[in-house]
């Protein structure tokens, strides 16, 4: 069996995709910059960088399948060009290398942020959306990267796109913005909440959805990998039951959060330290990011379970690994 390349295997979702592949008997090669987080996974580590085309050519050599999960997932960065180099140029570099190497299929990990979500409703793959709808450099870079993937698929290279919502669970190393919400909740650093919402999904189900996209997905198609639409208040209520920590009871107006985001991001731009409340994140919270995974269920057989167990694993993992001190 030819090896399968996974980019982003040292990150949250990529780690779970790699583990799922190993459980299925695949020989996994991981493109990494830091091998420390791979100690639990029996994979072949290949050093490289999405911005280094030559390193990607070496990484894909001999591979039959590629899961491109890696992305620069930051809601604030001093130099936004870093996001575009990794997410847009990096995707083009990898797909070019994969096509030249004769890779049989690529699963590209986009984001639900690239899906059109009408205010007050839920989004799906058919909802019209454009670059102008993207809030912040991260979403804009991911939207443009998704267009690169669609361009390659349109030229006949078999690329299937998945759009995860907000995965939760164990091994959220960095953590992700959603994981940061859980950590802040456990640290009693969430005194209030906004009237917003997310679609949560178990990260293990999301990883399974990647493999289903490889097996059953149609090239050039997008598939939302999500599960439960929950308001932030409902998420906190679940976390309260799971963790024993008290959920915030105060809802703050959006304009208060917006002012806090402006102040926090303004200081970050001066100090160079990551803001507690990135303004782009506050802007994203102005509408509930609710979505439907009906297409993935219908075409891929994607059947995610309730997120309570995943939230429980996240709480346990963050506590055991010192994130809540």
Structure overview:
The strands form three sheets. A seven-stranded parallel beta sheet has the order 3-2-1-4-5-6-10, sandwiched between helices. The chain has eleven helices and twelve strands. It has 325 residues and is of the alpha/beta class. The chain has helices at 12-23, 53-60, 81-100, 136-154, 177-186, 203-216, 232-243, 254-271, 279-284, 294-300, 308-320, and strands spanning 4-7, 28-32, 44-47, 65-68, 105-109, 159-164, 166-168, 192-193, 197-202, 222-225, 228-231, 250-251. Helix 2 (53-60) runs parallel beside helix 3 (81-100). The protein is globular, with a radius of gyration of 19 Å. It has a single domain (4-171, 199-228, 290-319), classed as Rossmann fold.
């Amino acid at each position: 069996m030819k090896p399968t390349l996974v980019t982003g295997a040292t990150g949250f979702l990529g780690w779970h995709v790699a583990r799922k592949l190993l459980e299925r008997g695949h020989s996994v090669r991981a493109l990494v910059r830091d091998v420390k987080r791979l100690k639990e996974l029996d994979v072949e580590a290949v050093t490289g960088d999405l911005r280094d085309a030559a390193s990607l050519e070496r990484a894909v050599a001999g591979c039959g399948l590629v899961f491109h999960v890696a992305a620069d997932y930051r809601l604030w960065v001093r130099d936004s060009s870093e996001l575009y180099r990794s997410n847009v140029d990096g995707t083009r570099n990898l797909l070019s290398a994969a096509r030249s190497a004769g890779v049989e299929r690529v699963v590209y990990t986009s984001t639900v942020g690239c899906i059109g979500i009408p205010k007050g409703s839920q989004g799906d793959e058919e909802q019209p959306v454009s670059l102008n709808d993207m809030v912040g450099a991260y979403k804009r870079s991911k939207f443009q990267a998704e267009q690169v993937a669609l361009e390659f698929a349109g030229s006949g290279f078999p690329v299937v796109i998945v759009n995860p919502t907000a995965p939760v669970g164990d091994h959220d190393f960095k953590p992700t913005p959603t994981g940061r919400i859980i950590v802040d909740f456990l640290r009693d650093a969430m005194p209030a909440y906004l009237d917003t919402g997310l679609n949560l999904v178990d990260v293990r189900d999301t990883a399974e959805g990647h493999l289903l996209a490889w097996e059953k997905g149609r090239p050039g198609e997008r598939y939302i990998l999500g599960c439960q639409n929950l308001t932030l208040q409902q998420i906190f209520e679940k976390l309260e039951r799971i963790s024993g920590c008290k959920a915030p009871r105060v809802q703050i107006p959006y304009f208060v959060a917006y002012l806090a985001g402006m102040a926090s991001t303004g200081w970050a731009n001066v100090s160079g330290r990551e803001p507690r409340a990135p303004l782009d994140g506050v802007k994203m919270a102005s509408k509930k990011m609710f979505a439907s995974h009906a297409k993935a269920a219908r075409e891929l057989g994607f059947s995610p379970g309730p997120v309570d167990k995943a939230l429980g694993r996240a709480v346990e993992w963050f506590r055991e690994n010192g994130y809540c001190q």
